Amino acid sequence: MAKETISVVCEHPKKWQVKDEYFDDEKVVISVADNGRKESIGAAKDASPAFPGWYTDVSWPGEAHIYKMKKIIFQGKSEFQELLVFESFGHGKVAILDGYIQLTENDEFAYQEMLTHLALCSIPNPKKVLLVGGGDGGILREISRHSSVEHIDICEIDIMVIDVYKKFFPDIAIGYEDPRVHVHIRDGIAFIKTVAEGTYDAIILDAFQPMGPIADVLADNCFLESVAKALRPGGVLSAPADSLWHKNFVIAETIANCKKIFKGSVNYAWTTVPTYASGVIGFMLCSTEGPPVNFKHSTNPLNPKQNGVAKGPPKFYNQEIHAAAFCLPSFVGKVIDP
C-alpha cells in the first residue's frame, strides 16, 4: 500500500517538553533536567512503593505489578498529561500515561487485535470507522487489515502521544502510515457529538482507563446516545470494559444501560493481557437497530493475505479466539444473566 500524506485536523497547539533520564550505578532513577535529583517518576496518582530501578504499577488498590527498568527513553508533559516510556528487562518498551500503564511491547497486540476485530469481523464490509483515543496507532494498524474500509478517522486529544509513539514504538504506530487515516487532534467526546447521524459503520473507543472510569463512560446515556446516533443501522461499538476479576465488577449494570441505547445486540467479551491488572480485560460490543449482528460468530473473517500496513499477520486474534471471547465463567454468567 503506497504511503500518502495523512490529513490532520489540529485544534490544540503542540506544546510539550522532554526530560532525559538515566540510571546511576545503583539503578536509581536520576533526572538530568532536575540537576541530578533522585526522584520517583511516573507514579500513579495514589502513590506507590519505591523500588530503585523498578517501576511500580498500582492500578488496583492493594496490589502492585513491578517492572525492572533498563533505561528511561522518554519523559514529557503536555498541557493534558504526562507520558513516560522506559525499556524493561522482560516486557520490551513500556508506556505509562499519567501514572497508569498503557501498554508493553510484549503483549500490546492482544488488546489491540481483540478490541478491533471482535467488532469489525462481526459485520459485513465495514467502510467507515472512527477510533476515539488509541493515539499509539496500534488499533489503526489492526483496522488496516480490513480491505473493505475506505475511511478511518482517529480523534486523539494529545499530539504528544502520537509523536512519542511514532518515534519510540514504530511497529505499533505504523498504523498512521495507512493513507485512509485522517487524524483529528481534539476531545473525542465532543467530536462524536458533532458527527452526522449514521456516519460510521463502527466506532472503537480506546480513550479511557480500561480498569475503572470506562464504566462511568458507558453509564453516560447522553454520550452513548451520541455514539448510537453516529452509527448506521446495524453499526457497532467496541469499547474496553471491566475485568471480570475486578472487585467491583459492574458489568451487569453496564450491559443493562447499553441495552437502553443500543437496540441491536449487546455483549460482554474478555481476553487475557498480562500487562493489565488481573491479567484480564473485558470488552463491550454493542450494535444499533438494523441488520442483525451476532458478535459471537465472525461473519467477516480476516483475509490471511491482507495485512494492511502491519508487518505480519495477527499474533493473537483468530476465529476460534473470537468465539471463545464470549464464553464466560460460571460466576460471570450468573451476574450477567441471573
From TrEMBL:
GO CC terms: cytosol
Pfam name, any one: Spermine_synt_N
GO MF annotations in UniProt: spermidine synthase activity
SUPFAM superfamilies: S-adenosyl-L-methionine-dependent methyltransferases
Gene3D superfamilies: Spermidine synthase, tetramerisation domain, Vaccinia Virus protein VP39
Matches recorded under PROSITE patterns: PABS_1, PABS_2
PANTHER family from the UniProt entry: SPERMIDINE SYNTHASE 2-LIKE, SPERMIDINE/SPERMINE SYNTHASE
Protein name in UniProt: Spermidine synthase 1-like
Protein species of origin: Abrus precatorius
